Structures are given as C-alpha cells and as structure tokens.
Amino acid sequence: MELPFAESWRIKMVEPIKKSTREEREQWMKEADYNLFQLRSEQVYIDCLTDSGTGAMSDRQWAAVMMGDESYAGSSSFFHLKETINKITGFEYVIPTHQGRAAENVLFSHLVKAGSIVPGNSHFDTTKGHIESRKATALDCTIDEAKDTQLEIPFKGNVDPKKLEKALAEHHENVPFIIVTITNNTAGGQPVSMQNLREVRAIADKYGKRVVLDSARFAENAYFIKTREEGYADKTIKEIALEMFSLADGMTMSAKKDGIVNMGGFIATRHEDWYEGAKRFCIPFEGYLTYGGMNGRDMEALAVGLDENTEFDNLETRIHQVEFLAGLLDEYGIPYQRPVGGHAIFVDADKVLTKVPKEEFPAQTLAIELYLEAGVRGCEIGYILADRDPVTRENRFGGLDLLRLCIARRVYTDNHMRVIAAALKNVFDRRNEITRGVEIVWETELMRHFTVKLRKL
Ligand SMILES: *Cc1c(COP(=O)(O)O)cnc(C)c1O
What we know:
Elements: H1 22-31, E1 46-47, H2 59-65, H3 76-89, E2 93-97, H4 100-111, E3 117-120, H5 125-132, E4 137-140, H6 161-171, E5 178-181, H7 194-206, E6 211-214, H8 218-228, H9 237-246, E7 250-254, E8 265-269, H10 272-285, H11 296-308, H12 312-332, E9 344-348, H13 349-352, H14 362-374, E10 376-377, E11 379-381, E12 402-406, H15 414-429, E13 438-442, E14 453-456
C-alpha cells in the first residue's frame, strides 16, 4: 500500500497547551469584551490568530542562537545573515531591521514622497500605511479574479498587467517603484506566478521603473510555482527563489513569516543608490548597519531559518497541513476563499451566518462562536477591520467578511487541524440558530479591531 504523507521533522521539545470549559470561555470572552485580541494566550487552546512570529524554530536554529555575536559593529552574525541572503536572493546589499514594517519604513523614507504613486497587488496594511502616511497613494492593480472567493485559479495573487500598464502610462512621473507582494497576503495567501513577475518586469523596464518584492512569504510562493507552474516541477525551491528575485530590484522582508523567527526583518537590494539612501534612515530608526533592529543571535537564527525554509520538504509539510484542514472543511461543506492559500484559511462568514445582519458583524460573530465552541482563536478580516469611511463615518460593508484561521509553522499537528475543523463544523451545523451578532460599544478611529469593545446581542 502507498505510504501516507507525514511531516518532514520529528519533535524534540514540547510546549503544553490547556483545554478549558465552555463556561470558562464564556466568562473570558465577556471579560475580553468579545474581542479575541484581548484574550490572554493561556485562555486559548489552539491559536490561529496569526502566522507571524509564531513559528517553531528548529534545533539548528536554537544552536545558532548560541553562536550569536553581539558586537555593536561588524558582528559576524550579520555577515552570516548577509551571505545567506546574498545566496538566496542574489541581492548584494542587506540592511537588517526589527521586522517587516521597519524595513518598509526605512526603504520608503528614502523612496516615497508626498504625491508618489506606488502600484502593486493588494498592498499589505503596514505597506499601505507607510505609503499613505507619506501622503502618497497605494494603487491596487490585483487581478479582478482575486475578489471571487469561489473561483479556483492557480495564481490568484497576480498583478493585472493591463491595470499596471495603465497606472504607469498615467502616473509614471510619480511612481518611485512597483511593489509585488509574494504571496499576496490580503487576497488570502495567494501566489504570484513567475510569468506574472516577468510581465511586471517588462512593464517596469518599459517605463524605466524598479520593482520591490514584499517577500514575507516568498518561499511559500516558490513552492506554489514549483507545484503549479509549467516548467518548474524539476527546479529546486532555491533555484526558483533566485529566479523570482532576479526579476526584481530589491525586497522588504518580514522574517517572522518565511524566515521562521519570532522577530526580525530586512531590506535587500542590488542597487548601491538604494542602499546608500536607506542607510541614512536605518541608523536613526533601527540602529547601526550591522544589526539594524536585531540581536546577533536572532540574525544567526534567521540565517538558518532562511536556508531551511527554502527546502522543499519543509514547505511541503507546511502547505500540506493547510491543505489538509481545507480538505476537512470541503468534506463538511464549509465555504472558504478558494483555492486555499499558503498560510491560512479564510472562511466566508457571510455565507455561513446568513441570518446575522451585516450590521451585526457575521465574521466577528463566527470568530466568537468558534472560540466558545473549542477555544480556537481566529481573526476577523472583515467589516470591523475595514474601519469606518473617513468622510461619512459609516461602517464599510463593501468588502468581504472573512474569518481567518492562520496556521503557525511547525507548531500544531494534523490532530489539531481535526479539532479546528470539527469545532467549525459544530458551529456550522447550528448556523441557522445563530441570528444575532455583536454591536460596538467602544472603538478607535483607526485600526479599531485591535481594541474594539463589543456587546453580544
Ligand atoms: C507581515 C507582513 C508585513 C509586515 O511585517 P511585520 O513583520 O509584521 O512588521 C508586510 N507585508 C506582508 C505581506 C506581511 O505579511
């Protein structure tokens, strides 16, 4: 008989997690004002809030921690990290930062000016924030197909070349660079094809522009290219990653994702002028050039993490687990953003809690119900996260209302996936009895989802 699929690692250290009773969870949820960010982690059984900084480091990474060189300047750990990044990306210049948004802050301080227009595919929140706070515009050129949650296409994170061409034809004088997010987080961890990166390169060259890759999940993107795009099946992940970066001029990286460290990030580029420009902002914002925002030990661990996570087996184990959970949801008929992406499942709450009016926030209601059911913490990516319209102060109900379940790297087993799926099925089975949601009793003007206080109706 054919051998079943199994993880490409075994477990050497464990961290106990605790179950709780429904009564306890009801009390805790109330004390947290029905906001899952306000829960204490020990009140959570399986935590699917985010895949950012929540991964498990390997024995090699922990060993590397002990080798950290904490010298203020010229740390050997910096050079280990730099050499690894040089090899994986082909980019010569490296600036370490404390996380991804800090890389954006440093690079954009050099490149983005008031009135700049930065086209790309569904800019991540912090990326958009760092553009808009400089009175510039993040112009979304993602393909329209990304909005249809039930459409199955292999590269749903792609840039629409026609939209990009139009953006450059109209605004090229104000475009400092194009940014492509791999994988496209906002569209559901959806990959971008090599063909699409080539098209973006061609358009950029036509207008003499440079391309930045927002690379938080570049290794997962490379995995999808290998398994879905013609001509890449026999290439290694490292060969594919190098080819992806060869089509760009620089990158910003949140190492908390595909670097599998708990904190860290960097900028890398092939252009000396970008490096010189960004350097001036690294020192005041992050720190001296050979540590940026990182400890020596963390740079060592990141160098190992980048090397390990650009190996096929590690990525196959990860993506396989996300697909395993998606398969269970298929079995139970629970609708989610299709096809499942690299790091999370986005449950289409509008299609599950059809009796809950949108004014009562179905996705948040579903997140609360899932927590009460089994202590599983997800995250609303929906109407609460969308904030109010800055002019009319009305809630924005135009987008999707999703419950995001992120899967941490190398942390949970497939049995935990079964628990998540079964808990969700139990809620799904009584979806028609859930007719009321929540109302807001207190909120901030911006990014209200972190601190919003809610009341159950
Ligand atoms: C997480 C993330 C960032 C920001 O990185 P932080 O490390 O959280 O600051 C930027 N872009 C993408 C696509 C991300 O997923």
